[in-house]
Amino acid sequence: MLGQPSGGESSPRDDAIRLLARREYSRHELVERLVAKGHEDEAITDCIDALAEQGLQSDTRFAESFLRSRILRGQGPLKIRLDLERRGLDRELIRHAFDEAAQRGEGDWFALARDALARRFSGPGDTPRERARRERFLAGRGFDFDQVRHALETAWTSDA
């Protein structure tokens, strides 16, 4: 096959392109995947630098795509931020992605919490235990205290 070293092994670039063809990856994720495939550290660094220069890998684009997909899943900002940090993105880049989403009108966290709660539960719950279950559901999704409180107050009202 063209572009592959002799012996049938693929190059870091070949493997990286195959991964990026499926979805966006952060630089950190791509390094982890290529290391797991047994590529040398220097070759990986050179490869990813070249891919970034060519616009084929972008942490900014990854952050925006990841944020958008998690919003569509009904996840809150705390969980999304933590997941982005785990994928090797710095806080400034994460903040920028959240700011860009807000400018596009994405990420109304209060409405998202309310909608997620209303989809999951048919009502606010009759007992403290049931209400606590709803709170845990939203907290586990990554919503903060104010967003959880708002959702519990408005999820089943007709004017929400």
Automatic annotation (TrEMBL):
Its main location: cytoplasm. This is Regulatory protein RecX. It comes from the Bacteria. HAMAP family: RecX (MF_01114). Modulates RecA activity. It comes from Halomonas aestuarii. Belongs to the RecX family. Residues 13-49 form the RecX first three-helical domain. The keyword Cytoplasm applies. Residues 58-97 form the RecX second three-helical domain. One of its GO terms (biological process) is regulation of DNA repair. InterPro entries: RecX_HTH_1st, RecX_HTH_2nd, RecX_HTH_3rd, Regulatory_RecX, WH-like_DNA-bd_sf. Pfam families: RecX_HTH1 (PF21982), RecX_HTH2 (PF02631), RecX_HTH3 (PF21981). Keywords: Cytoplasm. One of its GO terms (cellular component) is cytoplasm. PANTHER family: REGULATORY PROTEIN RECX FAMILY PROTEIN. The keyword Cytoplasm applies. It is found in: Cytoplasm. Residues 108-152 form the RecX third three-helical domain.
